[in-house]
Design goal:
The complex is a heterodimer of chains A (115) and B (115). With 115 residues, chain A is mainly β. Chain A is built from no helices and 11 strands. By secondary structure, chain B is mainly beta.
Chain lengths: 115, 115
């Protein structure tokens, strides 16, 4: 079982719709959760992080975390063609010691927003 | 503040040659990570350092790969001898293990092509 799994996609949504990206993780000790966006040919860019159960909103983006279900999601409202990218979910297990900075990444979900 | 700096941005070399990739982390960050990304395998963690000390190199594919961090502001990833299957984008990332949630910031990457 992979440590961090994302819905494989690709995901295609029309402009203006809500895009929903999902991620599950296996380690119950995980403490913080990240969503990175990666445009083709570019490096991953941090767009949101969350560490408390519930929702966190930033503009058109909402991250949702449910630690009991080991599930984190990213909702993109009013999707735009410029949101078309690969979205990577990453998890920090906060194992202590020298592992604080280490993240485990999912394989990514390709999102296409068509006009 | 400047982000993570990597050089070169592109490298084309012939099989058997030595390749050296360079990284300057964000000032003040105590973690540095080397990743490799391919279409087939996604984003793979190769090795990471904490306070210039290698912590986990289990992702280094074989003895042809080596990494060093002689000081807090510089790291190298060396491949000797290079092979065509090493062709990939190599990312360097850094983070602070002193500031929760320990998010990572990526450099622009080095696209390596081995012919």
């Amino acid at each position: 079982q992979k440590e961090v799994e994302q819905n494989s996609g690709p995901l295609s949504v029309p402009e203006g719709a809500i895009a929903s990206l999902n991620c599950t993780y296996s380690d119950r000790g995980s403490q913080s959760f990240f969503w990175y966006r990666q445009y083709s040919g570019k490096s991953p860019e941090l767009i949101m992080f969350i560490y408390s159960n519930g929702d966190k909103e930033d503009g058109r983006f909402t991250a949702q975390l449910n630690k009991a279900s080991q599930y984190v999601s990213l909702l993109i409202r009013d999707s735009q063609p410029s949101d078309s990218a690969t979205y990577l979910c990453a998890v920090n297990q906060d194992a202590g010691g020298t592992s604080y900075g280490k993240l485990t990444f999912g394989q990514g979900t390709i999102l296409t927003v068509h006009p | 503040d400047a982000g993570v700096i990597q050089s070169p941005r592109h490298e084309v070399t012939e099989m058997g040659q030595e390749v050296t990739l360079r990284c300057k982390p964000i000032s003040g960050h105590d973690y540095l990570f080397w990743y490799r990304q391919t279409m087939m395998r996604g984003l793979e963690l190769l090795i990471y350092f904490n306070n210039n000390v290698p912590i986990d190199d289990s992702g280094m594919p074989e003895d042809r790969f080596s990494a060093k961090m002689p000081n807090a502001s510089f790291s190298t990833l060396k491949i000797q001898p290079s092979e065509p299957r090493d062709s990939a984008v190599y990312f360097c990332a850094s983070s602070s293990g002193r500031h929760f949630p320990y998010e990572q910031y990526f450099g622009p990457g080095t696209r390596l092509t081995v012919t």
